[in-house]
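The instructor's notes for this session suggest beginning with a concrete chain rather than abstract definitions. Hand out the sequence below and ask the class to guess, before any prediction is shown, which regions might be ordered.
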Amino acid sequence: MDDDSVDCVTITFCAGQQLIPLYPMVVDMFKKLIKGSSKTVNIWLYGTSLPATEELSRQLQSQGLPVYFDLDTAIKPLGYASYYAEVKTAFDEE
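After discussion, reveal the predicted structure:
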């Protein structure tokens, strides 16, 4: 996250039934990581249990964290955000 050559990040996380007791800690970890960054960040969430994955997604989204269940869907918004930043920088420099 401190690398200046990185504009945006997709965090990949595998959720499962066995991790449900750890979800509050996981949500807090992601919240601190994303809120403390100046980069555009989202989360690609997948797992072995649909109910467990959906529960973690609800908890993350309730904290304002962007969550996607499909990698392509997660990456596209980052591309748009990066392009917008480039265009905005070009206009600001004029």
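Then share the key points. The chain is about 50% helix and 20% strand. The longest strand covers residues 8-15.
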